[in-house]
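User: Okay, second chain of the day. Same drill as before: sequence in, structure tokens out.
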Amino acid sequence: MNNTPHWIPSAFIYHLYPLGQTAAPRENHFSQPAEDRISQLYPWLDHLQWLGVNTLFLGPVLQSSSHGYDLADYFQIDRRLGTNQSFKTFANEVHRRGIRLILDAVFNHSGRDFFAFHDLQQNGKHSEYLDWYEGVRFDHPSPMGDLFDYLTWAGHYTLPKFNLANPVVRAYLFQAVSFWIEEWGIDGLRLDAADHVRHDFWQELRQVTTSMHPDFWLMGEVVHGQYQQWANTQHLHSITNYEAYKGLYSSLNDANYFEIAHTLQRQFAEDGIYRDLMLYNFVDNHDVNRVASQLKNQQHLSPLYALLFSMPGIPSIYYGSEWGVTGQRSAYSDQALRPVLNLQQLIQHAPQANLPATIQKLAQFRADTPALQTGSYRQAHVSSQQFAFWRETDKQKVLVVLNSASDVFTLSGIRIPNNLQLKNLFEKQSDFQLDRNQSEVCIPPHWVSLFVFE
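Assistant: Same drill. Structure tokens below.
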């Protein structure tokens, strides 16, 4: 699996957006002293451990102008969150609890408050950082009032695009990565806008991180394209599985499990194009609507998360969604997706009171079941509201049966290999009849059954 770090198959990732959760000001006034908001995250670590999380992915925490992806300093924690030392103390506590730490990294572009861009503004054609950015030209001004124009990320002039062909720029960014590893002991990076970055940059980053930390993980944000372009033995380890993202919820909304079944067959079956990759799976994140807002029927949250934890790849949960928190982006802002959440209030009065315990059980079952971590994928049954598949290793086979209907579903005709015995069930079920040739599985409404054979 493209030299995937040994800890990744068993990873359960929790995605937290600190600037939102800590109510940091939306704009960074760089003249103000640092405020220790990172300490607000300590209580969340207890919750993560209860949930079964073993990997914490923090959205951007480095010094930026506003939302965290317009970086101003690659060597400083955002003063709205705290200091390098306060973050180091937090990182040490994360690791002390046996939780790995992933940071968000932005290498495609900087913000306009980055020192090299400031120098370009001040010195123009004579700036020693002229070649740090792509497409700089002085024949017309930028829409921001600069005396020059430049390339950006997706037309956003607050995000000037780095010239990553410049070895000096690369050396600076790799020095920053080395600093994060040495100072905070991070275990991996989520790489923003990975599909906009030169492939040879990712190749060199892989070499740099592997030399420092052989088990370091690189996961790229890619929305479109063939994932092997980025995830392979030379570049990144994993990619955001946007291809499966929509089908995970729309299969439920449309009573059409054929949609996600087709995707998983294409990706992970015996001849699947991604069967050798551990993709990063999610049902929502900081850029897309909360899944509780996407689903038409909140009872579908349980089978949705059951599929997330049983399909091939790495399950990830976005903070708050384990309680069924809702949120929708507007045409102009993602702020509603990145709110302040009252942890204790949610624990006591969750919108979906039973969902956290369901996710906890699913996480524990996956942690105890190697076939759900590394097993191959084989479809067993698909209909409009029912979906079944096998996850298999040489020593273990798991049958996953999902039912999104409002009635009990009975699946018959499941053939169990003669040399295997039923060893474990996701939950106690008295109506499971084990017959070698004509097994019957009864699945409650809006639920999942998981059977382990060894």
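The radius of gyration is 23 Å.

User: Thanks, on to the next one.
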